[in-house]
Write a structure and sequence with these properties.
The chain is mostly helical and about 240 residues long. Helices cover about 75% and strands about 0% of the residues. The protein contains ten helices and no strands. The protein has helices at about 20-55, 60-70, 75-90, 100-130, 135-140, 145-160, 165-175, 180-185, 190-200, 200-230. The longest helix has about 35 residues, at about 20-55. It is globular.
């Protein structure tokens, strides 16, 4: 049945197939993941680059501090704090449940902060290493504008190792974070996965695991192809 694309039927949700669950939950998880990625990744790259160029200054210290805190604090604490402050105290967005785009803001923000903090630390480290390379000094000696050096030499070269883990991270974001979707009661892939584990719904667990594995392989392949766009030396050729 698996070879024919049939992932079986759920034990917990009578009459519902795993394919049906994926079809209903995946768009929600992909929306959260895409929003988090579009905000978190550029923000992390920007913060890391700025911190590296302001090394030892208050901006650098602030980025390092918040990145360390963001990487150390579990998502369920970050999500609960955002939920309490923004939704409960300020009443800007819905506290939980899925009611459309407004319900996606807080869970997307929680995921985006996690991505931004991790990428900011990695980007800062790589840019600081690259800034001390001989070819950077040679580019400045030739009179190349600083903006061109930052973009074409520093950021592009620093992105290569930063992107090395993006395949798994993108797949995890698009498949839904188990913790974040559970906190905000979002009916996405992550929520169904965690419920299936606790209720011993084996067909759903196995089906979602297989589907998640497919996403990991797919996005690792896409990231490998992106390497060639960033660094022409890595492009596949005959």
């Amino acid at each position: 049945n698996l070879l024919q694309g049939d992932l079986g039927y759920s034990y917990q949700y009578a009459g519902r197939s795993v394919n049906d669950i994926i079809g209903n939950a995946l768009p929600i998880s992909m929306q959260l993941g895409a929003q988090a990625l579009l905000v978190g990744f550029p923000l992390g790259i920007l913060l890391g680059a700025v911190a590296a160029h302001r090394s030892g200054k208050p901006v650098d210290h602030a980025v390092v501090l918040f990145s360390a805190l963001g990487a150390s604090i579990p998502l369920y604490i970050t999500g609960a704090l955002i939920q309490f402050v923004v939704a409960v105290k300020l009443d800007w967005f819905p506290t939980a449940r899925w009611k459309g785009f407004s319900s996606s803001i807080l869970p997307s923000l929680t995921l985006a902060l996690s991505v931004a903090f991790s990428k900011a630390r990695a980007m800062r480290t790589m840019v600081m290493e690259i800034r001390s390379e001989d070819y950077i000094h040679a580019a400045r000696a030739r009179g190349i504008p600083e903006s061109a050096i930052v973009y074409w030499h520093e950021i592009r070269n620093a992105l290569i190792p930063v992107l090395s883990t993006m395949g798994v991270e993108i797949a995890s974001l698009l498949m839904g974070s188990f913790v974040v979707e559970h906190i905000y009661a979002i009916p996405g892939i992550g929520s169904y996965y965690s419920n299936a584990v606790t209720s011993l719904d084996y067909p759903v667990v196995l089906g979602l695991t297989i589907f998640y594995t497919f996403f990991v392989v797919l996005f690792n392949l896409i990231v490998d192809m992106i390497y060639g766009l960033i660094d022409p030396r890595i492009r596949i050729s005959s």
